[in-house]
Amino acid sequence: RRRCARTSAGRFVYEANVSMSLSTLGLVLGVFEKEGEEDGLHLTEAAAGFDQTLSGKLSELLKISGPALKQGKSRVFYGIHKDFPCVAVVGLGKNNEGVCGKENWDTSKENIRQAVSAGCRLLQDLEVNHVEVDACGDAQSAAEGAALGLFHYDQLKSKKKTKVTTQLHGSADSASWEKGVAYAEGQNLARLLMEAPANHITPTAFANTIEEKLGPHAERVTINKRSQSWIEEQQMGAFLSVSRGSEEPPVFLELHYNGSPDSKQAPLLLVGKGITFDSGGISLKPSPSMDAMRADMGGAATVCASIVTAAALKLPVNIIGLAPLCENMPSGKATKPGDVVRAKNGKTIQVDNTDAEGRLVLADALCYGHTFNPRAIVNVATLTGAMDVALGSAATGVFTNSDWLWEQLHKASVVTGDRVWRMPLFQHYTRQVTDCQLADLNNIGKYSRSGGACTAAAFLREFVTAPHWAHLDIAGVMSNKDEVPYLRKGMSGRPTRTLVEFAAGLAHDS
Description:
Blueprint: E1 2-6, E2 12-16, E3 25-33, E4 41-43, H1 45-53, H2 57-64, E5 74-78, E6 86-94, E7 99-100, E8 105-106, H3 107-125, E9 130-133, H4 139-150, E10 165-168, H5 174-195, H6 203-213, E11 221-226, H7 228-233, H8 237-243, E12 251-258, E13 268-272, E14 274-278, H9 298-313, E15 318-328, E16 339-342, E17 348-351, H10 358-369, E18 376-381, H11 385-391, E19 396-400, H12 403-416, E20 420-422, H13 427-434, E21 441-442, H14 452-461, E22 469-473, E23 479-480, E24 490-491, H15 496-506
Parallel strand pairs: 2-5, 3-6, 3-9, 9-10, 13-15, 13-18, 14-15, 17-21, 18-22, 19-20
Antiparallel strand pairs: 1-2, 3-4, 5-6, 7-8, 11-12, 12-15, 16-17, 19-22, 23-24
Helix pairs in contact: 3-4, 4-5, 5-9, 8-10, 9-15, 10-14, 12-15, 13-14
């Protein structure tokens, strides 16, 4: 008995009356749209080879099962091959589209990520537990799509999704596949940290998790988990002012990855905001969606995950990562609006809004980071709701004093598809934070809501003397609903892959 039926999701499924187990092997293959033919398809190299072993059956089924597969669409065929009970065929769009100047990404790579992700999820829903994946012309992008698409945070649920392992189908570029897996696993680590409840990922638990992940790379990595007494010795008054309201002790996590054979190579410094839960402090946030503030340590998560990835890939570059970790909570000890605190560099700060705490912990971390004479400084933070208003989830906002650094970050983001967009650092915004009644600086802009992302960046610049510094505001890309098709709903882990690609680029840039 053979028939071709439309599923409830609108996909065509080929059914064969054969004995098979859906919890064994699955296969994802890609097809391109054929140029100039509305309903034409062009099989990838792997798909064409598979079709040949079936004497053209796959091509025949694709023709009779409905209109040509457009980009992102998929079909599943059952029982057409003895080794693969389930075969998902996914539409890759047009072949060799390449970099799109308007979209600021490589469209072909994005299409592959989206298509492979859709195919792998489809097989996961069918409880297939091992999937071979077509390289689709770019094994790294295929691996990223597979690993990112299959990630699902269900660690605390009794009923879990089917665990799926993936591997490259055929003899394509296995090195690129493994690189893609490493990139995706890095982002998934950041997603894991950001998604976990705040009572599971405290400052101490965060630091311990990163230490565990870096364990296999101990010969290249030094880890320092600095205690509150060390933070006090460093006179990090701004950082301490945020942590005061919580019963959880703060931790200043310091990571050194020594990947360059040249021990004198100046390091790249990555600094991540590590607020493991942000209630707003005395300037309390409204209750709706406050639970999402478990991910306010997204900056620290992406920075630390990128260093774990760099170590796994053995990138020939030196990186120092700093993560000031604490909670921002209201209590009798908490900082009050109007209080004045002193940062590590001696500047005084009037704290008019305790919910603008990220810039305070970053200020002291940036001051400390300068002692390493870094080649470049990049800080990452879920800093302002204003950034979400400005760019939404389309791109990370970048504020930088360096055209060279901007070019490196932008180039990396085009490759990863996790885009960045340059924002202004005008003196116009600096004046709004330096015009302060009681102290050298105010932690909010003079006109409050106006240009909030820009005044926050201007505040941070007051703690930077290095010629190559960039501030990445990731508030808008912190979570995903359905904007990025190859990420499920939840915390996104963005822009971990862009940070890794950026660091890899620095290894080859003079």
